[in-house]
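FAQ

Q: What does a record look like?
A: Structure on top, sequence underneath. For example:
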């Protein structure tokens, strides 16, 4: 009769939910590791400030029960705090100073971005819009804001994010409008079809072009004037 060998115990496999949680944890650790050192210091300081109250309450509750048993008069919180300072020699609690932002350290490093003031006012609250007025590049032109490219304070981050959304929106609309212009010119030069068919296609393209102009985001014409110029030779907009 053959001998029965004991099967080796297999390691318990993790569930799909645990694997997803582990992958997310690894991705978060990798993202935190790749952050700039200034941002890591700010995150550490904010974490200490936000959790210091909870830690103080936990330890105060544990030590208070012991001290009250020794001296019942220490039930008063004021007396308890005085006791801690007198016996243990603890200095008064001083919160650390707020970190100085990079844009305050290096005021001479300023990058200018052009964002229409009405575009900003439509995407932020009135209070936030008033706060961003201090980032105006000059009193004459309210469409230009400054920021420090290496600073991660709220003002610099909001200005970079508003500029990114503005540029992406205008670029998407411009490519669509420029494509219709190119399609119209290509169809005009096409001599393989009759004149009636060509005129009919040109009419449809013109209708689409008018719809594109009607659906253009606010400030699109100013964006064209600032960044592009019309070329009669190429029959298209070219960068300045």
């Amino acid at each position: 009769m053959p001998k029965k060998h004991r099967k080796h115990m297999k390691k318990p496999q993790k569930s799909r939910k645990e694997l997803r949680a582990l992958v997310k944890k690894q991705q978060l650790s990798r993202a935190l590791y790749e952050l700039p050192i200034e941002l890591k210091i700010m995150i550490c300081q904010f974490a200490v400030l936000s959790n210091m109250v909870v830690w103080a309450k936990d330890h105060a509750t544990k030590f208070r029960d012991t001290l009250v048993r020794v001296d019942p008069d220490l039930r008063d919180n004021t007396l308890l705090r005085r006791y801690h300072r007198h016996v243990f020699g603890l200095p008064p609690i001083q919160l650390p100073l707020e970190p100085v932002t990079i844009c305050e350290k290096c005021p001479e490093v300023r990058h200018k971005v052009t964002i229409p003031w009405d575009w900003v006012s439509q995407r932020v609250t009135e209070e936030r819009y008033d706060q961003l007025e201090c980032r105006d590049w000059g009193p004459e032109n309210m469409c230009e804001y400054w920021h420090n490219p290496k600073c991660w304070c709220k003002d610099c981050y909001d200005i970079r994010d508003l500029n990114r959304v503005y540029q992406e929106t205008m670029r998407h609309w411009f490519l669509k409008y420029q494509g219709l212009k190119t399609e119209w010119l290509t169809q005009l030069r096409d001599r393989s079809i009759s004149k009636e068919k060509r005129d009919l296609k040109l009419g449809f393209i013109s209708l689409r072009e008018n719809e594109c102009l009607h659906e253009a985001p606010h400030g699109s014409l100013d964006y064209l004037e600032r960044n592009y110029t019309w070329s009669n030779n190429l029959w298209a907009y070219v960068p300045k």
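Q: Is there anything notable about this one?
A: DSSP finds nine helices and four strands in the chain.
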